[in-house]
Amino acid sequence: MHHFHYRNGQLHCEERNLQSVAEEHGTPLYVYSANTVRDHYRRLDAALAGLDHHIAYAVKANSNLSVLGLLADLGSGFDIVSGGELFRVIKAGGDPKLCSFAGVGKTAHEIKFALEHKIYCFNIESVAELDLLNEVAGSMRAVAPIAVRINPNVDAKTHEYISTGKAENKFGVDYLAAEEVYQHASTLPHILVRGVQMHIGSQLTTVDPFVEAVERVVPLAAELKARHNIEFFSIGGGIGIVYDPALASGQSEWWEQQAEPPLSPEIYATELVPRLTPLGLKILLEPGRYMVGNAGVLLTTCLYEKKGHAKNFKVVDAGMSDLIRPALYQGHHEIVPVRESAGDSQIKADVVGPICESGDFFCQDRDLADFHADHIVAIMSAGAYSFTMASNYNSRPMPAEVLIDGAEARVVRRRQTLDDLIALEL
Ligand code: LLP
After folding, report:
1. What single DSSP character describes residue 15?
2. Does residue 17 sit within a domain?
3. Rounded distance, CA 267 to CA 272, Å?
4. 78: domain range?
5. Which of 25, 58, 253, 271 could hold 288 in an S-S bridge, CB 3.0 to 4.6 Å?
6. Distance, CA of 175 to CA of 172 (rounded, Å)
């Protein structure tokens, strides 16, 4: 569900016409819907109402200060993976005491920064990291709260680059070795055992892998509660979103083979809450994409049309430096014209950017609206892992970001200038 709809033939975000937003701020331009983020937070929170739970939004999905501020206002905690993300949460008015720090490569410097801000928990991914944390905390005469990230060895059935819970992934500690690590942690003077954590992957479109992983880790969590008095179990993030409406509307063959509708917070809760409630632990969730994925679009202008030997190309002013998901994960993003009438005729085409790489495409051989030069199109579902993965490759300034809240459209990050590109160079 989201707040991007055609009204009077024009694509709107909430109350704002995206044609005029693009004309005012230029393209490429990221546009986010504040009410979509709020709705998603509240819907997930409500689905879990029967469970003692807390949502810790995964900052990596979209770390714009205004997006973080929206979530902080709703009472969200934050899943962070770097000192930089903690800095952003603090600047956005988020509470460091609601932050969990994940990641396999935390540096001593980042650990110190997080300890100074008294974060809720460090999610430990190795014994070496645990020992360093104990040392740094000792040097500060502090005690560091920890959870061990368990790798449950479950196939999340998602793209291999975003699957994290299998034995061959770099993440977490093998669940069979977990007790030993907790035993070791309990002997360290500057460590407080506080919880247990897992995260099996991202963009999961069925609930089964979550169920499998939860069932695997619940007995361990119960034992850790008895032995180490842990207070929480974080089940990670990973709830997938609908990128391709054809999949969700029954128009595709793929869809017909699927028995279930797309993964919703309600299905997720129905399956998981009864399995988690008996534990009597606080349950943390770390959703990123679910919260913001469908709350953003990337607006881009068509520069040229080009007929290749075998293909039609639409060259647009956004590139893989602005949105790398299609190039990196074969990610599907719908591409629709901002003026609906541009969609009256269809064409099979590749939508490509200006970057000097053949991987610089937003779609290939797709049937889409036959838009032309100067038309503005929206690349949909670009709220998560889109701006946060942008770069300055080919020395292209990063786009501006606009947050729409009802009828108000606010620039929440200005467009980079050419001077910004070289500002750090000596
Ligand atoms: N918790 C942990 C420990 C994570 O590693 C992640 C995501 C999340 C939570 C949030 O997962 P989500 O709810 O957003 O699925 N760039 C990729 C996705 C990478 C996900 C990394 N970890 C993409 O564009 O698909």
Report:
1. T
2. no
3. 8
4. 34-290
5. 58
6. 9
Sequence-distant (6+) residues with CB within 8 A of 23 are none
Is the entire prediction scored with pTM above 0.85? Answer: yes
pLDDT at res. 259: 41
Distance 290 CA to ligand 1 centre (A): 10
Q: The tokens 């986010």 sit on which residue?
A: 32
Residue 426 lies in a domain: no
Residue 171: the pLDDT is: 82
The confidence score (pLDDT) of residue 254 equals: 43
Active site residues: 356
Q: Could you tell me the distance, in angstroms and rounded to a whole number, from the CA of residue 227 to the centre of ligand 1?
A: 31
Q: What is the pLDDT of residue 98?
A: 98
Final residue in a domain of this structure, among 231, 256, 290: 290
> 267 and 326 in one domain?
no
Residue identifier of the C-alpha nearest atom 6 of ligand 1 = 237
- Spans of the chain below 70 pLDDT: 165, 246-261
| CATH assignment at residue 71 | 3.20.20.10
- Name the average pLDDT for the chain: 94
pLDDT at 260: 47
Q: Which residues line ligand 1 (CB under 6 A)?
A: 58, 61, 79, 102, 162, 164, 199, 202-203, 236-239, 286-290, 325, 329, 385
- Can you tell me which residue has the tokens 């880790």? 217
User: Do 66 and 200 share a domain, yes or no?
Assistant: yes
- Measured in angstroms, how far is the CA atom of residue 237 from the centroid of ligand 1? 7
The DSSP element (H or E) to which 410 belongs, if any, is strand 408-413
Nearest CA to ligand 1 atom 3: 199
pLDDT for residue 258: 43
